[in-house]
Design goal:
Layout lengths: L11 E6 L2 E6 L3 E7 L2 E6 L5 E4 L3 H8 L5 E5 L2 E4 L3 E7 L2 E6 L2 E4 L16
Antiparallel strand pairs: 1-2, 3-4, 3-7, 4-5, 6-7, 8-9, 9-10
Length: 119
């Protein structure tokens, strides 16, 4: 499967944190992790992260229009632009996104088969 990330260029997403609002470039977002009711945006600048009290399913729906954002498990959404490799170890699929390793759910492992890799 080929993930088209070309629609991310120049697009921004609003991230609200308590009383602060940030506009993040969609093509700078590397991955988003959800822990309970807090979703945290991680960007290419590894020193910064942006927590928000939005559910991951709502963020996923909003980012759908930009393309290239993939839900790999129940608490992780990645930007395919930064996907560098995938491998299987003991029947478990892993991917590497911007120097960080993630486990892919069994339900979504088919997205990362060798014949469908695109990064």
């Amino acid at each position: 499967m080929k993930w088209d990330c070309s629609n991310q260029k120049g697009k921004k997403i609003l991230v609200s944190e308590q009383k602060r609002n940030y506009f993040l470039n969609a093509d700078d977002i590397t991955y988003i992790l959800c822990d309970g009711y807090v979703s945290t945006f991680y960007i290419t600048d590894e020193t910064k992260k942006y927590p928000t009290s939005r559910l991951l399913k709502h963020i996923e729906k909003e980012l759908e229009q930009y393309g290239g954002f993939i839900r790999i498990n129940r608490n992780t959404l990645i930007n395919a632009r930064y996907l560098s490799s995938s491998w299987t170890e003991d029947k478990v699929k892993y991917i590497l996104v911007h120097k960080k390793q993630f486990k892919v759910s069994k339900r979504n492992a088919h997205l990362f088969r060798k014949d469908s890799e695109s990064a």
